[in-house]
Amino acid sequence: MLNLYAMSLSDIEALFKEWGEAKYRARQLWEWLYDKRVSNFAAMTNLPKTLRTRLAAETTLGVLSIAAEQSSRDGTVKRLYRLPDGQLIEAVLMEYDDDRRTACISTQAGCAMGCVFC
């Protein structure tokens, strides 16, 4: 599946040319992704329904979803995110005071180390 956020405007134009779509449709899609920041194809109402259906079937927006969240008394928040391919990554936000926070974000999916600090 093609991740639209990994594609340039010219990549999308080339894809739409292969699909027999007008070149300006790529710009419309680009505006939905980067100007209006929508996260589903149904909201892209100036694109034909047939194109939205094909986009939903053959591409992805690569949007993360929150799989789990834990908060502690000290304000630390730990989130488990699900990637579009089903893999999981973790992120932790630690608050030390009003002016200082530290974020720890996993840089790979599928790590088998099982570190307790993650």
Alpha carbon gap, first and last residue: 30 Å
Coarse morphology: elongated
> Would you report the number of β strands?
6
| Uncertain ranges | none
Layout of helices and strands, plus pairs?
Layout lengths: L1 E2 L5 H10 L5 H11 L14 H10 E2 L4 E7 L5 E6 L5 E10 L2 E6 L13
Parallel strand pairs: 1-2
Antiparallel strand pairs: 3-4, 4-5, 5-6
Helix pairs in contact: 1-2
Describe the protein in words:
This protein is 26% helix and 28% strand. It is of the alpha+beta class and 118 residues long. The chain has two domains: 2-60, Orthogonal Bundle (DNA polymerase, domain 1); 65-105. Strands 3-4-5-6 form a four-stranded antiparallel beta sheet, with no helix packed on it. It has a two-stranded parallel sheet with strand order 1-2.
Tag the structure with descriptive keywords:
118 residues, alpha+beta, DNA polymerase, domain 1, 2 domains, four-stranded antiparallel sheet, two-stranded parallel sheet, 6 strands, elongated
In short:
It is built from 3 helices and 6 strands; from the N terminus they run βαααβββββ.
